[in-house]
């Protein structure tokens, strides 16, 4: 059984993430999309909300599941019996940090490989941060995130006032 972990903040999950998940689901028997607690990033959505949005996004993929974790990624991956960790690479700007992360993880546990995947070219400009900024400023994010994520973003940034 080939198991892979795709970790991230997923604050919120985007079509770029989904593209990577779909590619991974064709290569591995089981893909665990693992939402990191990661409080240092002061996320817009709670851990529970982020995991829920991921779970709704992957509902059509039978070999993919959503989970959450805190603490060291490499320990979490090993606890699942995963052979690999997937990270997405969009541009050269992602490379330096991802390279560092992959090597430190290998130092801690040599049995878990890090695999990099590139999204479809149309998603290379997408990040959770940019999507939040567009929505916050009143832009339409429906081309960048799954429909239920667009609704969640709209509600978070532009809640409709209760009827008078
Ligand atoms: P993190 O806080 O771990 O960077 P993110 O949710 O921002 O969490 O991203 C999780 C992973 O998905 C990272 O490897 C990131 O490079 C990758 N990723 C983010 N957006 C995209 C995208 N549009 N296309 C491909 N990979 C992406």
A few lines on this structure:
With 164 residues, this protein is an alpha/beta fold.
How would you describe this structure to a colleague?
By secondary structure, this protein is α/β, with parallel strands linked by helices. The protein is 42% helix and 18% strand. It contains six helices and five strands, in the order βαβαβαβαβαα. The protein has helices at 15-27, 47-57, 73-80, 92-108, 128-136, 147-157; strands spanning 3-8, 30-36, 64-69, 84-88, 113-117. The protein has a five-stranded parallel β-sheet, sandwiched between helices. α2 links the parallel β2 (30-36) and β3. The relative contact order is 0.20. Residues 8-10, 14, 16-17, 20, 87-88, 90, 94, 119, 123, 126-128 line the site of adenosine-5'-diphosphate.
List keywords for this structure.
Rossmann fold, binds adenosine-5'-diphosphate, alpha/beta, 42% helix, 164 residues
User: How far apart are the first and last residues' alpha carbons, in Å?
Assistant: 57 Å
Runs in which pLDDT lies below 50 for 5 or more consecutive residues are none
The percent range for strand residues is: 15-25%
Give the tally of structural domains.
Answer: 1
Oligomer: single chain
Determine Rg (CA atoms, Å): 16 Å
> Can you name the CATH architecture?
3-Layer(aba) Sandwich
CATH class (first level) name: Alpha Beta
Helix share, percent: 40-55%
CATH homologous superfamily classification: HUPs
What can be said about the biggest beta sheet? Answer: 5 strands, parallel
Morphology call: globular
